[in-house]
Amino acid sequence: MKAPDAMTASAATPEDDGVPVSVKIRERIHAARKRFHANDNIAEFIEPGELDKLLDEVTTKMEGVLDSLVIDTVNDHNTGDTARRVAKMYLKEVFKGRYVEGPEITEFPNAEHLNELMIVGPITVRSACSHHFCPVIGKIWIGVLPNEHTNVIGLSKYARLAEWIMGRPQIQEEAVVQLADLIQRKTQPDGLAIVMEASHYCMGWRGVKDMDSKMINSVMRGAFLKDPNLRREFLSLIPGKN
């Protein structure tokens, strides 16, 4: 017959040990000495089934936020399920890029030794600023100068990679660098250029309430950084940017 303490230990499961799933995930990240900033992906530290438990936890915390905002969610038919909807929106939609692995990208060798400028865009991207969690919505143009060793990926895959990077609380300047680093690793081109133009609702919805202002920034790598003629060619071929 098992000792009482052994029976208790065997009966306990991760689901009923009383430790919030967010704490378990955070402990794994700390143990790996990894960063978990707002725009980091933490999918490798989330075990199967834990995302749904995290959804329950965030729902409960969001209910507390609504209570603190003095909103009667019990009697208000408009906000009765708001906590769950907001939790689901954050975890499985707008911040999905934090919690899931990157998209599968099939890479092909550059069999035809393509070495001419290729531009993909505009790709519509949606994110949220990590200062206020307000929407950031804009467009991205990607320029690639391949070489004979460059991996070729499908055009739609650039959009998938952009969606994954932007699906986190972001700062636009950091987002384009993250995307450039990712595409650089995937394709190994001679040159890579990214331009992003976006509206920030933390300016249009609050603060100065200016809906017309946009932010434009760029990242230039390799040949685009060294060759001003190539850089000018890329920028001149972006509609409305020449």
TrEMBL record:
<dbReference type="GO" id="GO:0006730">
    <property type="term" value="P:one-carbon metabolic process"/>
</dbReference>
<dbReference type="GO" id="GO:0005525">
    <property type="term" value="F:GTP binding"/>
</dbReference>
<keyword id="KW-0554">One-carbon metabolism</keyword>
<dbReference type="GO" id="GO:0003934">
    <property type="term" value="F:GTP cyclohydrolase I activity"/>
</dbReference>
<dbReference type="GO" id="GO:0008270">
    <property type="term" value="F:zinc ion binding"/>
</dbReference>
<dbReference type="InterPro" id="IPR001474">
    <property type="entry name" value="GTP_CycHdrlase_I"/>
</dbReference>
<dbReference type="InterPro" id="IPR043134">
    <property type="entry name" value="GTP-CH-I_N"/>
</dbReference>
<protein>
    <recommendedName>
        <fullName>GTP cyclohydrolase I</fullName>
        <ecNumber>3.5.4.16</ecNumber>
    </recommendedName>
</protein>
<dbReference type="InterPro" id="IPR020602">
    <property type="entry name" value="GTP_CycHdrlase_I_dom"/>
</dbReference>
<dbReference type="Pfam" id="PF01227">
    <property type="entry name" value="GTP_cyclohydroI"/>
</dbReference>
<keyword id="KW-0378">Hydrolase</keyword>
<dbReference type="GO" id="GO:0006729">
    <property type="term" value="P:tetrahydrobiopterin biosynthetic process"/>
</dbReference>
<dbReference type="GO" id="GO:0005737">
    <property type="term" value="C:cytoplasm"/>
</dbReference>
<dbReference type="GO" id="GO:0046654">
    <property type="term" value="P:tetrahydrofolate biosynthetic process"/>
</dbReference>
<comment type="pathway">
    <text>Cofactor biosynthesis; 7,8-dihydroneopterin triphosphate biosynthesis; 7,8-dihydroneopterin triphosphate from GTP: step 1/1.</text>
</comment>
<feature type="domain" description="GTP cyclohydrolase I">
    <location>
        <begin position="73"/>
        <end position="238"/>
    </location>
</feature>
<dbReference type="InterPro" id="IPR043133">
    <property type="entry name" value="GTP-CH-I_C/QueF"/>
</dbReference>
